[in-house]
Amino acid sequence: MPRLLLRLEGMALFILATVAFAHLGLSWWLYAILFLAPDLSFAAYAAGPKPGALAYNAVHSTLAPAILVGLGLSLDSSILLGLAAIWAAHIGFDRMLGYGLKYASSFNDTHLGRIGLKSAGA
After folding, report:
1. What angle do CA 58, 4, 53 make, to 5 degrees?
2. How many helices (H) and strands (E) in the chain?
3. Residue (of 113, 92, 103) closest to 50 by Cα position
């Protein structure tokens, strides 16, 4: 049940962040181009699972987009709010699909359970 709730939470974040982006009136091309940008953090896995997990988690935590929202609101910047919305939407989408924050043991070990071919239903 917790895994289902966390996935539903991810879906809610994805939908709400996408709706927020829509209300900002920014270009959907920006959304399309940047939506998968956080996945560039996968490259850190070339240095091993520990640095890979560190980089992945830094970019796939909601902390940075939340800070960006605060900055965007304080500066009245729709572009910063839009970037935060895209980033949060990506994180929500990943969570909805079962991709959680990574443990240093393996890319497949996440806070939402094990992923991949030998997963336990994650």
Report:
1. 20
2. 5, 3
3. 103
| Structural domain that includes position 91 | 2-109
Q: 114 in a domain, yes or no?
A: no
Interval 13-67: pLDDT, tens: 999 999 999 999 999 999 999 999 999 998 988 999 899 889 999 999 999 999 9
118 found inside a domain:
no
Length of the chain measured in residues: 122
Structure tokens at 26: 């920014």
Provide the domain count of the chain: 1
Q: And the tokens for 72?
A: 């965007």
User: How far apart (Å, rounded) are the C-alpha atoms in residues 92 and 21?
Assistant: 14
Q: CA angle, 32 as apex, 41 and 38 as ends, to 5°?
A: 10
Q: What's the order of all strands across the beta sheet hosting 106-110? A: 102-103, 106-110, 113-114
